[in-house]
Every structure is written in C-alpha cells, then in structure tokens.
Amino acid sequence: MSDASINTQTQGGEAGFRDYFALLKPRVMSLVVFTAMVGLLAAPGGIHPFIAFCAVLFIAVGGGASGALNMWWDADIDQVMKRTTSRPIPSGKVTGGEALAIGLTLSVFACVMLWLATNAVAGALLAFTIFFYAVVYTMWLKRWTPQNIVIGGASGAFPPMIGWAAVTGGVSVESVLMFMLIFMWTPPHFWALALFMNSDYEKAGVPMLTVTHGRRVTRNHILVYTILLAPIAIGAGFTEIGGPIYLSVAVVLNVLFLLGAFKIWRRNEGQAQVDKYRLEKSFFGLSLMYLFLHFGAILAEAALKPYGLGGW
Amino acid sequence: MGFEHVEHELHKRRSGRNIGLGLVLVAFVAIVFGMTVVKVTTGGLGPKPTATQGASK
C-alpha cells in the first residue's frame, strides 16, 4: 500500500470543526441566547453571574443540539431546497449518523448540566424544548400541516421561560407572557417572509401556508395573529417584567405592527408584485425589530431596577 | 534521503477539528471547575433545609 491510495475527496468523518459547529445553527442560537438571557435577568431573585453564564450557555447548547437533530431528519429536503443545500449534511461534509450522534449527545449533556447548574425545572423545560423542536415540529408537524410554524414556533418561545426557571425554579405569569410573545410573533414573522421569498418548499413537499392555502389566506392569517399578539405584548407591560419603558416601547411597536399587518391584508398580489413586495419586506424587517426591542425593553427595566428606576 | 511531508487540505481540516475539540474539552473542565467553586462557596451543594428545621424552640 502506498500513499497514493489515500482518498483525498471530502468524506464524512473528515469535516472541519466549523462544519460540526454549523450543525448547531449558530444564527438561531443567537436569538436563543438573547431571549434566554433576558428571561434570566428579568426573573426575581438572584443568581451568581457565573451560574447565569453557564445557564445561558447550556440553553444555547441545547438549542444547538435540537438544530443538529433537525438537520439529521431533514437532510433529504435540505438537499432539494436551494437555501439549504450548503448545510453540512447535504453538502457531504458531515454524515447523517454524525449529526444524530452529536444532536443526541449534546441534548443529554445540555439538559443534565443545566439541571446541575440551576435546578430540575429548568433542565426539564430544556429537555421538553428539544423534544418539541426535534420530534413534534421536525418529525411530525413540518411535513404534515401548514400550521407547522405556528405550533413549531413554541420551541423558539421556550428559552426566556427556561432562563426564568433557572433563577426562580418555576413558571409564572411573566415567563408565560414572554413565551406567548415569541409564540404569537412567529407566524406573522415567517409568513411575511414566505410572501416575498421564492422558496422551493413545494418541491420539497413542505406544506407552507402560501402554497397550500394561497397568499390571500396568508395575508388574512398575518393580520389575525398580529391582532392577537398586541394585547399579550402590551399586557406584559403591567406585570413584574414591565414598566414605563417597556409599556411605551410596546404601545408604539404594536401600533406600527398592526398598521403594517393591516396594509398587508388590504392589498393583493398584483399590487405587491408592482412594488416587488416592498411592504412585506419592510414588515418583515419591522418584525425583527419588534422582538428585539420588546426583549431589549424588558432587559432595560430589569437593569434599571437596582437603581430604583425600572419597573412599576 | 527522506520523505517530504505534504500538508494536504484534509490534514488541515483534521488538525482544526482536533484543536477545536481540545479547546471545547478545556472549556468544559473550566466550566465544571468554576461551577464547583461557586456551588461550594455559596453553599449550593449543602443539604436543603427541611420544613421542620427552624420550627424548634
């Protein structure tokens, strides 16, 4: 045998560290880190800064693990859709088996470590979140119903609740409201994107609302969910996590969001095509700011509380 | 006479993976050590108070 027999082609098992890291969906992880951190800092009671850091880290690792499990299960449709062909498994850098092993190992690791660092409730909530995203959303709902992102959005809504539980050891009205805020925000956010993105979900056999029920129905859904979202977002302002800053931010943002949803609902496809979905794109941009500023305001209230300024 | 070592892209990837994994393991040890120190110094590893404690005269 000589050195000439060495296969120089990219194979599974010879992926770089970045390829394995990409399995954890780092961009999704950033939202998980931010909202979990806000939940943790807004919670009443104290937690040691190092334990807080560890808790957010383990929540992020748990979120990443569910991303790896999602990539393992969805490798077949990721290969079909342009947006996802460069992911580690369809591009041939990482094998499906490796993604599954990494996903399962990190899931167990993150839940046990969060439990040891904080408490059993936080560990159990993280385990449920991973189960919900990997099994309920990815394996069950995603290819079955156009309401997939509505129910699946719950998995993205759990992180602030886990952060809150890491400090308090329980669930409360405030943490449920933070959950509901992300849960109700997810549908208008994703459906606005679906309206202007030329996605190939149809080719992949994923029933997105724009494909199964048409764009008119999607516009109706965006308005309905935005109307349902407003009282939750503003209502949170009257609880322990709220305060004058949060309430002002929430009122302004919800008026803007409702106006945007109303404009999207009022117009038809022809009008949208004329201006190349300008309104839908600006609504999507606003939705990103909407979530960031709501949680930023909760964070501001929590940060100002020690100085007697935040909260009611 | 000797063999010339040719650094292939495959070796770079493997080396990067090993270094990355090594750093992750070092970070894990540091985190467990840090958590232990915090738990010990703040009494987080001590027995939890029972309902009867503190109720005695």
From TrEMBL, chain A:
Entry keyword annotation includes Transmembrane: yes
GO CC annotation, single: plasma membrane
Keyword annotations from UniProtKB, A to Z: Cell membrane, Heme biosynthesis, Membrane, Transferase, Transmembrane, Transmembrane helix
Domain of life: Bacteria
Membrane topology: Multi-pass membrane protein
Locations listed in the record: Cell membrane
Location, primary (coarse class): membrane
Pfam family membership, one: UbiA
GO biological process: heme O biosynthetic process
E.C. code: 2.5.1.141
Pathway given in the UniProt record: Porphyrin-containing compound metabolism; heme O biosynthesis; heme O from protoheme: step 1/1
InterPro entries: Protohaem_IX_farnesylTrfase (IPR006369), UbiA_prenyltransferase (IPR000537), UbiA_prenylTrfase_CS (IPR030470), UbiA_sf (IPR044878)
Chemical reaction(s) catalysed: heme b + (2E,6E)-farnesyl diphosphate + H2O = Fe(II)-heme o + diphosphate
Family: Belongs to the UbiA prenyltransferase family. Protoheme IX farnesyltransferase subfamily.
Xref: NCBIfam families: cyoE_ctaB, PRK04375.1-2
Protein name: Protoheme IX farnesyltransferase
Gene name of this polypeptide: ctaB
Automatic annotation (TrEMBL), chain B:
TM stretches of this protein: 20-38
Domain of life: Bacteria
Keywords annotated in UniProt: Membrane, Transmembrane, Transmembrane helix
Name recorded for this polypeptide: Cytochrome C oxidase assembly protein
Taxonomic classification: Bacteria, Pseudomonadati, Pseudomonadota, Alphaproteobacteria, Rhodobacterales
